[in-house]
């Protein structure tokens, strides 16, 4: 090789090194060239987790090698079309903005199953209640002029009681602690218990009192009820009732206590009963109020005249007002809840006293459940079962999970794995189970 050729090779390599070295250093430092802005920019990242995991990741319609959970690093700042897919699940997709030197979190995305509801029992099934995290349930069926109560477990449906009742029958409450079912036929209240044997008992006969409302608890075998505007505790084992408070407008049971609304001469008092001790929380002006589901330390009250929700802290008695008629708590985040009306759904944050509109519908919202993941919710509208994410960045993901001819009642298990539906699908009436995840 001649000296001239060696010099050409040497200087060529030197020029390539001089050009490439800064580029390598810039890329190693996390910079990428942005062709739109025609300059190098510090990169960003997308961090993704899903439930279930091992979802495929598509970025700008290109399949990535990674699966969730994943960290997509060294991304040029800008907008990316992100899609997450899993076999037999609805896909999730959104336009994600990546910022320079920042990580964009796509955290705990709930992927919902793409499956058809399964018929568990055919017939005129009019009400249902979930009784465990495993999807076990108790349901009410009308058959040949008789009312039947069935238990649904992993082995299938089992008839547990059958008799003739008059009036409109509704399942009212269930206690896991006492394994007691509360129901009404017309205006009369009944309990169904398997201790010592399975039997349906009239509470009017058992206690000698007519009842307007009764609530069961999961922290005690004792129930609480309103009779002639007085509040009593009820012992179903012996039928004993103990007077607690007069002039009661409403009562609800929470995980730890009982909340009551009591009428006074010039106002209403909001009180809680815990461990047989009654504590006053706050006075409310005379009006039409209804107690809603609460999550400690917050108590929820619907003001019908103002059409507003009042959230009252039982510790410091502060009051916060929100749009909505009913409350579904985003457990375990007791400072966040979903408030909804017939046509609007709101994500409400107590710490910031803020609400974010999650959806405005043309059809009525019949039922709504907060998914235990904390980042999605299930709602029933126009005989459709739908799911939606809480994340409203970009386009919100909303899925139609099932379509029915008619939906009467739905119940979701506490683990958020299954939804039970009483209704008619493809002209078949019955109890249906829909797998959510």
**CATH domain topology of the domain at 43-110:** Immunoglobulin-like
Widest sheet, order of strands: 5-4-7-8
Query: Quick one: biggest sheet?
Result: 4 strands, antiparallel
CATH evolutionary superfamily of the domain at 43-110: Carboxypeptidase-like, regulatory domain
Provide a descriptive summary of the structure in words.
The protein is built from 2 helices and 41 strands. 29% of the residues are buried. The longest helix is centred in the N-terminal third of the chain and has 26 residues, at 3-28. The mean pLDDT is 88. It has a domain at 43-110: Sandwich (Immunoglobulin-like), CATH 2.60.40. The protein has a 4-stranded antiparallel beta sheet, with no helix packed on it. The chain has a 4-stranded antiparallel beta sheet with strand order 10-41-40-39, with no helix packed on it. A 4-stranded antiparallel beta sheet has the order 11-12-13-14, with no helix packed on it. With 437 residues, the protein is mainly β.
Spell out the blueprint of helices and strands.
Layout: H1 3-28, E1 31-34, E2 39-42, E3 44-51, E4 56-59, E5 62-67, E6 70-75, E7 78-85, E8 92-98, E9 103-110, E10 118-122, E11 124-130, E12 137-143, E13 146-153, E14 156-163, E15 169-175, E16 180-185, E17 188-193, E18 199-202, H2 203-207, E19 213-215, E20 223-227, E21 230-234, E22 241-245, E23 248-253, E24 258-263, E25 267-274, E26 277-285, E27 289-295, E28 298-303, E29 308-313, E30 319-323, E31 326-329, E32 336-340, E33 344-349, E34 354-360, E35 367-370, E36 376-381, E37 384-389, E38 398-403, E39 406-412, E40 418-425, E41 428-435
Parallel strand pairs: 3-9
Antiparallel strand pairs: 1-2, 3-6, 4-5, 4-7, 7-8, 10-41, 11-12, 12-13, 13-14, 15-16, 16-17, 17-18, 19-20, 20-21, 21-22, 23-24, 24-25, 25-26, 27-28, 28-29, 29-30, 31-32, 32-33, 33-34, 35-36, 36-37, 37-38, 39-40, 40-41
């Amino acid at each position: 090789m001649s000296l001239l050729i060696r010099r050409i090779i040497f200087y060529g390599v030197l020029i390539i090194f001089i050009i490439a070295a800064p580029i390598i250093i810039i890329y190693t430092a996390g910079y990428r060239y942005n062709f739109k802005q025609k300059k190098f920019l510090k990169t960003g990242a997308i961090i993704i987790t899903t439930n279930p995991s091992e979802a495929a990741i598509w970025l700008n319609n290109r399949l990535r090698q990674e699966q969730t959970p994943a960290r997509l690093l060294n991304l040029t700042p800008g907008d990316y079309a992100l899609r997450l897919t899993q076999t037999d699940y609805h896909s999730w997709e959104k336009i994600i903005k990546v910022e320079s030197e920042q990580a964009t979190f796509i955290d705990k995305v709930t992927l919902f199953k793409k499956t058809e509801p399964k018929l568990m029992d055919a017939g005129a099934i009019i009400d249902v209640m979930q009784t465990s995290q495993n999807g076990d349930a108790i349901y009410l069926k009308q058959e040949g002029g008789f009312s039947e109560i069935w238990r649904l477990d992993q082995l299938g449906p089992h008839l547990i009681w059958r008799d003739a009742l008059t009036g409109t029958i509704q399942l009212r409450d269930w206690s896991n602690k006492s394994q007691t079912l509360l129901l009404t036929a017309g205006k009369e209240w009944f309990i169904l218990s398997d201790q010592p044997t399975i039997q349906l008992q009239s509470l009017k006969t058992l206690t000698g009192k007519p009842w307007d409302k009764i609530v069961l608890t999961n922290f005690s075998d004792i129930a609480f009820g309103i009779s002639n505007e007085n509040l009593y505790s009820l012992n179903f084992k012996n039928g004993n009732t103990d007077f607690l408070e007069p002039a009661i407008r409403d009562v609800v049971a929470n995980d730890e206590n009982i909340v009551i609304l009591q009428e006074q001469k010039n106002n209403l008092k909001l009180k809680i009963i815990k461990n047989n001790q009654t504590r006053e929380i706050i006075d409310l002006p005379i009006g039409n109020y209804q107690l809603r589901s609460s999550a400690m330390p917050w108590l929820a009250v619907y003001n019908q005249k103002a059409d507003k929700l009042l959230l009252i802290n039982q510790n410091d008695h502060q009051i916060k007002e929100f749009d909505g008629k009913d409350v579904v708590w985003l457990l375990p985040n007791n400072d966040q809840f979903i408030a909804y009306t017939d046509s609007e759904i709101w994500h409400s944050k107590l710490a910031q006293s803020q609400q974010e509109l999650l959806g405005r519908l043309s059809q009525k919202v019949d039922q709504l459940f907060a998914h235990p993941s904390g980042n999605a919710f299930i709602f029933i509208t126009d005989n459709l079962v739908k799911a939606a994410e809480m994340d409203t960045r970009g386009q919100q993901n909303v899925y139609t999970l099932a379509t029915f001819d008619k939906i009467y009642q739905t119940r979701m298990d506490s683990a958020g794995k299954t939804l039970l539906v009483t209704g008619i699908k493809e002209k078949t009436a019955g109890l249906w189970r829909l797998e959510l995840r």
